[in-house]
Design goal:
3 domains; Hypothetical protein af1432; Phosphohydrolase; 73% helix; single chain
Length: 417
């Protein structure tokens, strides 16, 4: 029995099961979660210097601990997982005492966890290692989404936050190493949840106070929140462009910026190449003109070509600096595009913040500014590429002309001896 081979076979088996039995609703208890548990289990097991048999037990249990979700409801998935692990290990001819140890580790992950030995403690701590990680927020959202999809359990944001706080407060890591490694992160995540819940409760209390004072607008808003009437909320919001329009703006701006970067790269290439050519001409060829007088004209043509190419390339990349100021009248009449730094880089932060707030509160102004931004990006791109076109033409024809001139000079005007 080779533990490494059996662990590799367990990995292959579980990966194949998830691939052949896809469950789109299992957005939390999926292969990604299993891989994260395996990684955490390996880290914990390495710290305790387990024997080969113990390592085999922990790793196989980590791979199999949630496979039962693919073949039934969440309730009782541990028992189904243990049965599948037993069948797999039997086929691998693994001794019975290891099979029982693996089953014990899997069953110990049932909430509330009650591990009885170190191996079970390691698997339990690995299963909930995300509680003390930076991924907790994202994983917690996925768990909430899975419960809504699979068990049709809907939670308000406040309810879910309160449940998460309760779970973290009642949870403890079982191994000393997990406590040292993950407990600080778990406490930090718990504190963030408490702050989030306190903020929501404070907001709710303010609304209740407003209700006591009989403020009609706030009363209507609270009633809508309590009922979860999202459709009515959407009716109260101002109309927004479709997502496709926003995607179009984002894609077009990205493409313009990418093309501008490409133009700058091409210009830099031309500047670098021609700078090298000029250096060679000045340091080598022109020193030999007394010996090679016939190369004066070809050399000058070559030099003029390189200088002209550099001039066009520099013009293509040379930045234009605008005034960088605007006034209140410009904002009120929507004459300034605050999405371009050249229109505000000399303004105080307070004025720029005010202008941006005005623009964001006016959808016509906002999307009009985005249209102007794309348009002027296109104008700048057109200028860049026209100058680059000239630079490449000058370089191409100049090189050809220079080579022809050097060839004629070498053949028809022999060097002075």
């Amino acid at each position: 029995m080779e533990p490494g081979i059996i662990i590799a076979a367990a990995k292959q088996f579980i990966t194949k099961q998830y691939a052949e039995h896809p469950h789109p609703t299992l957005v939390y208890h999926n292969l990604t979660h299993t891989q994260q548990v395996v990684k955490s289990a390996a880290q914990l097991a390495a710290h305790y210097h387990l024997s080969e048999e113990e390592m085999l037990t922990v790793m196989v249990a980590a791979w199999f601990h949630d496979i039962g979700y693919l073949y039934g409801e969440g309730t009782g998935h541990e028992a189904r997982s243990a049965e599948m692990a037993h069948s797999f290990l039997t086929a691998q001819e693994v001794p019975e005492h290891i099979q029982l140890a693996v089953a014990g580790c899997i069953l110990a992950t049932q909430i509330p966890q009650q591990p009885k030995n170190l191996l079970e403690q390691i698997v339990c701590d690995a299963d909930l290692s995300h509680l003390g990680s930076k991924d907790f927020k994202d994983r917690n959202k996925l768990l909430r989404h899975e419960l809504a999809l699979v068990q049709h359990k809907e939670f308000t944001g406040e309810e879910w936050t309160a449940n998460s706080i309760s779970f973290l407060e009642n949870h403890t890591y079982h191994t000393a190493y997990a406590n040292a490694l993950l407990r600080p992160g778990k406490e930090e995540n718990l504190e963030k949840l408490r702050e989030k819940l306190a903020g929501k409760q404070a907001k709710h209390e303010k609304r209740l106070v407003a209700l006591d004072n009989d403020v009609p607008a706030l009363k209507a808003a609270v009633e809508k929140d309590d009922k979860g009437d999202k459709k009515d909320k959407k009716k109260d919001k101002p109309a927004k462009p479709d997502r496709g329009v926003e995607t179009m703006f984002r894609t077009t701006s990205t493409n313009h910026i990418r093309l501008s970067s490409m133009a700058d790269s091409k210009a830099h290439i031309m500047i670098s190449v021609n700078s090298i050519i000029i250096s060679v001409l000045l340091s080598v060829l022109f020193r030999k003109l007394d010996d090679y007088p016939s190369f004066i004209i070809p050399g000058l043509i070559f030099l003029a070509t390189s200088v002209t190419t550099i001039v066009f390339s520099v013009l293509a990349t040379r930045p234009n600096v605008s005034a960088g100021k605007f006034n209140k009248d410009d904002i009120e009449h929507q004459r300034t595009n605050l999405l371009f730094f050249g229109n505000f880089h000399k303004m105080p932060l307070e004025d720029y913040n005010w202008g941006m707030m005005q623009m964001m509160n006016n959808s016509d102004y906002l999307y009009g500014s985005m249209i102007k931004d794309i348009y002027y990006l296109g104008v700048v791109l057109g200028k860049k590429y026209r100058l680059l076109h000239k630079a490449y033409n000058v370089f191409m024809f100049g090189i050809v002309l220079s080579v022809v001139a050097f060839t004629i000079a070498a053949i028809w005007f022999p060097n002075r001896q």
